[in-house]
């Protein structure tokens, strides 16, 4: 059984971070199919083999220096082998920009090594994390490091408006763009710089994540109800958008839930042992 410790951020970092996590298991062999979720993430691997593989691409191996990934556009497979010992941060969709001024464009080609963010300070962080024996103290050490390294920038309202309003109705995104009093091209460029996707694609991912949670909580609910509850025009539209992110159909996901391979607490992951 994997031991997990979770810590919410302090008030100073609350606008950029959802939570910190630490997992450890002495001997873990696990493969997980991951559907994109609404976070940017830092992972520091302090244990055995830990890789992330997008479809058709080479595996990225997380190491002690850490790797920062943006919001994914498609599914990835993570594999853990041996002594699993990892610490990480789930950032809000715009968290890396808010905290470090990091453009999401830097994450398009895969995870960004921690050394690219913090340079030689990365080694100091790893040494401090290894020194602390208790998971909660490791997470507090990580937070103190972030407070010292932060170079905060304000998040454009173009981003926060879309984050707070989820609708696929015709003209919805255009109305947000007009409220910003910028051209459609400028609006999309600004959003992509901070979040890493277009506003429309981001809203679709929000609705897919809501659909995953609904199916995981109630796998007996008809998928047509899930589609309409989450604002899709019809079942065909729901299947098309779902598969574009997940690589599988809603029915395939539902069967994985019914087989006990999905945890309600994190419905984006389908576990294989």
UniProtKB/TrEMBL annotation:
SMART domains: HTH_ARAC (SM00342). InterPro entries: DUF6597 (IPR046532), Homeodomain-like_sf (IPR009057), HTH_AraC (IPR018060), Tscrpt_reg_AraC-type_HTH (IPR020449). GO terms for molecular function: DNA-binding transcription factor activity; sequence-specific DNA binding. Keywords: DNA-binding, Transcription, Transcription regulation. It holds the Pfam family DUF6597. Residues 156-256 form the HTH araC/xylS-type domain. The keyword Transcription applies. It comes from the Bacteria. PROSITE patterns: HTH_ARAC_FAMILY_2. The keyword Transcription regulation applies. Transmembrane segments: none annotated. This is AraC family transcriptional regulator. It comes from Chitinophaga fulva.
């Amino acid at each position: 059984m994997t031991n997990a410790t979770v810590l919410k951020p302090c008030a100073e970092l609350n606008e950029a971070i959802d939570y910190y996590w630490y997992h450890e298991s002495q001997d873990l062999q696990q493969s997980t199919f991951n559907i994109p979720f609404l976070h940017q993430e830092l992972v520091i691997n302090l244990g055995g083999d830990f890789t992330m593989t997008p479809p058709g691409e080479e595996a990225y191996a997380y190491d002690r220096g850490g790797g920062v990934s943006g919001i994914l556009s498609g599914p990835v497979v993570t594999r853990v082998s041996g002594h699993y010992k990892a610490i990480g941060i789930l950032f809000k969709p715009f968290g890396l920009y808010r905290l470090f001024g990091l453009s999401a464009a830097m994450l398009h080609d895969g995870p960004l090594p921690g050394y690219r963010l913090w340079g030689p300070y990365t080694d100091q962080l790893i040494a401090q994390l290894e020194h602390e024996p208790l998971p909660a103290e490791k997470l507090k050490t990580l937070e103190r490091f972030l407070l010292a390294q932060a170079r905060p920038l304000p998040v454009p309202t173009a981003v926060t408006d879309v984050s707070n309003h989820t609708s696929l109705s015709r003209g919805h995104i255009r109305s947000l763009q007009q409220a910003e009093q910028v051209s459609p091209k400028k609006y999309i460029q600004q959003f992509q710089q901070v979040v890493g996707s277009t506003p429309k694609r981001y809203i679709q991912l929000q609705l897919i994540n809501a659909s995953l949670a609904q199916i995981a909580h109630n796998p007996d609910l008809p998928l047509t109800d899930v589609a309409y509850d989450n604002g899709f025009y019809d079942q065909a539209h729901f299947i098309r958008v779902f598969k574009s992110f997940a690589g599988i159909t809603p029915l395939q996901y539902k069967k994985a839930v019914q087989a006990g391979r999905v945890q309600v607490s994190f419905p984006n992951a389908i576990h294989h042992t």
